[in-house]
Structure prediction request, 309 residues.
Amino acid sequence: MSNLELDPREIHCGAEAGADREVLPGREVPLGGPRAMLVSRTLPGTRRRMIGAWCFVDAYGPQRAAMRVPPHPHTGLQTVSWLVEGEVLHLDSLGSRRHVRPGQLNLMTAGRGISHSEESPETMLHGVQLWVALPGEHRHVGPGFEHHPSLPVFAGPGFEATVVMGTLGGVSSPATAYSPLVGAELAVDGAARVPLTAGFEHGLLLLDGTIDELERGSMVYLAPGREELRLSGRGRVLLIGGEPFGEEIVMWWNFVGRTHDEIAAFRAEWMEGLESGASVFGSVAGFDGAPLPAPVLPGIRLKPRGRVR
Prediction:
């Protein structure tokens, strides 16, 4: 999914200390034009920008809507598409064409550059779109796409976990990850006790149902040091986490880089490619419509910063 804001703010990300537990409120963002689908964006937030390598979280639905995100570029990150309800079609410049449905994972690695689109007919949509920042040694890897129709599931006291990315409780997802992290959907029924990796920081996002201390539209941040997560109620929770990201990055529009000049070069390459039809980002076949032009860069230089304001 793209960041469709016409005047995107510079997003400051990197490594700094924070509180043991924080509530990260979401902000409502429209995706598209007058009939835009609304999403709740909890990462990046006003204070905390990342949780592990996770740097972007948009939750949407349940709502009846048509998703239409035209072809747009990415660099330096992975996109993770996770649905609770509905169906979305992914097209990319590698020639990939895959629907993602509930319980399945679409994972796209941008690396040095890729472009893609996402769309669905008007239907009930409920899901989450996430980005993972690639660490420096992997941020220029070749672009790639993975579709995982089934993922490992394990049960514990009061919960059943689908491991989407990384490892949870010794169970690992088959999806490619470039840093130590976890992404999982927890189906909670009663009093749950979920094992955690003590060196990870974590985030909890309520998807549906009623879970004590969790509210729709906000994410709860948990600092490193916990070996167990206790939840009570009935519902589904998205759990993300990872080792605190040890690099400062520049994140603007749909690009993750390290300097202003690098971001400016990505933007110029995309815009020049729209004119010439040839660029490192390639082109997306099968989408009925024009690609997204990049917004204008802000009038000040973008700076790499820490992950907490």
